[in-house]
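Just curious. Protein, please.
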Amino acid sequence: MKLKLKLLLLLLFILNHHVDSGSIVKFLPGFEGPLPFELETGYIGIGEKEEVQSFYYFIKSENNPKEDPLLLWLSGGPGCSSITGLLFENGPLALKSEVYNGSVPSLVSTTYSWTKTANIIFLDQPVGAGFSYSRTTLTDTPTDTGEVKNIHEFLQKWLSKHPQFSSNPFYASGDSYSGMIVPALVQEISKGNYICCTPPINLQGYILGNPITSIEDQNYRVPFSHGMALISDELYESIRRACNGNYFNVNSRNTKCLKLIEEYHKCTDKLNEFNILSPDCDTTSPNCFLYPYYLLSYWINDESVRNALHVNKWSIGEWERCTYRRPIPYNKDINNSIPYHMNNSISGYRSLIYSGDHDLTVPYLATQAWIKSLNYSIIHEWRPWMIKDQIAGYTRTYSNKMTFATVKASLLGSGHTAEYKPNETFIMFQRWINGQPL
């Protein structure tokens, strides 16, 4: 009897801790009929004992998955789930913006999915973000550099389980805080291809939207605010003289600068900093542009959705899009990603860097400044890029295979992430990934 009990307990332990490396999802609650694309979800164990279980969504290209590029997409935060990208920025599904009535929110197909020309892995990272979890209490706090190594390990293991994609051109991509991770990841993969890893990852380049690069980025909020007529000429000139270009890490003895920064905040604090043209609204209100964020929490926390996504029931409690209410321990140990950009340029990797032109969080001025600091000659001068005879933004290309583009605001604006202008960013991506001028 004791032996049978032990065997039963062992079986329950195995079932509770077993995680499929990948499971096909053919139907999702809220979407009518079978999914019109191939979706796989699963976990990849990280570390020697694989305590960390990294959750991913993989969508095959709707064009030619055998030859089309393979992208890794990372959302920012740190601590935001990659389903933010999938459902709000560049995936084949979106949440329908309708008043929540207690049932599972509806999903609709999009016309702007990057999966029309690329295979994409949407990865939840670091541990604690989305559905990624740890089987044991972590002894080490996650860090930027640690995440770079973990993501590299994830890619190696994922490709070993999906060898049919090992020869596809690979691009790392993401937005916001991913600007600290992706450039370092590209360097890590590049080095690994030479010294450790077989087969090598077919690394070709990277893509970043409104990327955070260093703490200096925030200093460009003041000149951006001035250029956008959010602060007066007089206040701008006074701040510029008193603060010497350092606006948000001010010495406490510089009382004049501190007082002027207070005046600056009075002018800007009630703005939607991610898109200054959109109202700063309550996401629980159906009239808010970001209401689908509110719907997402109901959709993904529904038991039927978790079952459909093959989420381990014992992994996490309530799912959060970003870990703001319950912050995960995290050490930001990459202070500046510009050296990684420089090294990646020297190694010859392509890059597309784009900015929504009404983002106050990481203003396009900050991105232009660090690109200029790389000191590469300009191949094609500043010019508009067009969609159906309309200006969609502006672009410039450099001798280091880097393309910079802005995405121009319209009635809804163009902000911190691709969700504000998904149709335009899709066309921009499609042209760039196919080697065409924007």
